[in-house]
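Example record used in the benchmark description.
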Amino acid sequence: MSTNTNLFHVGDQDFDAKVLKSSKPVIVDFWAAWCGPCRNIAPVFERLSNEYEGKLGFAKMDIDEHGETPGRLGIQAIPTLMIFNGGKAIGRLVGRQRYCSCIS
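Model output (structure tokens):
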């Protein structure tokens, strides 16, 4: 992971402060180290975090280290990407997706 400050890790303890109370929308990648599709999307997620700096925050949450928040949000498969704005979940992508060539 780069030194990009727009891409950050969150845990159960700071999820509300860093994601739900953020002044800008935040997309959260719920992932695990053993998940192949999670590792596959990581470089794209990092690149997008650079491109959208100042407009959209990018957070990663390891579900093996932090289980309370994914449980509360109904995360049942990974990777799951969720977009939060104004303290509310406004979008969700679950599982392996086929991405267009514009972001691969």
